[in-house]
Design goal:
Number of helices: 4
Strand order of the largest sheet: 1-2-3-4
Number of strands: 4
Distance between the termini: 41 Å
Strand content: 15-25%
Largest sheet: 4 strands, mixed
């Protein structure tokens, strides 16, 4: 459900379509502000919140394509949030290992570097080890 109580003017067909689309696709939120040039929404789904701007220049003919493009963008935002959460959990786990085995950041970096070598030698993705090394060295 999208709260429209902050709308200053009657909703355009495109705004109504966007609201229906958000609701049908499991989003909740509100209209933050209506401008002459655009309407700004604050929307959430699956614990992820985003700001969506619907330009007044979007025509009734291409509103569906515009919203589908937004779906793709929001899906990518979800992937980014998931990766950030995974990295944070991994960093917490590394911190626990560091304390349990009395290791320094340099020790953990060395271990992760070698794990990355093993992953690359076996043609596996070593992105997470690289990200963890970078996070440890910040």
């Amino acid at each position: 459900m999208i709260d429209t109580s902050r709308a200053k003017w009657d909703l355009s067909k495109q705004e109504q379509y966007a609201i229906e689309w958000f609701t049908a696709n499991g989003f909740v939120g509100e209209i933050k502000k209506q401008y002459v040039s655009k309407t700004v929404f604050k929307i959430s789904k699956n614990g992820i919140t985003d700001t969506f701007a619907l330009p007044q220049s979007v025509t009734q003919k291409n509103i569906n394509d515009f919203m589908e493009q937004y779906r793709k963008s929001f899906d990518i935002l979800g992937i980014i949030h998931k990766k950030e959460n995974e990295n944070m959990k991994s960093l917490d786990y590394l911190e626990e290992i560091k304390k349990r085995y009395v290791l320094s950041n340099e020790d953990l970096t060395d271990i992760l570097t070698h794990i990355g070598y093993i992953a690359r030698d076996n043609k596996l993705d070593d992105t997470i080890t690289e990200e963890l090394i970078n996070a440890l060295n910040e």
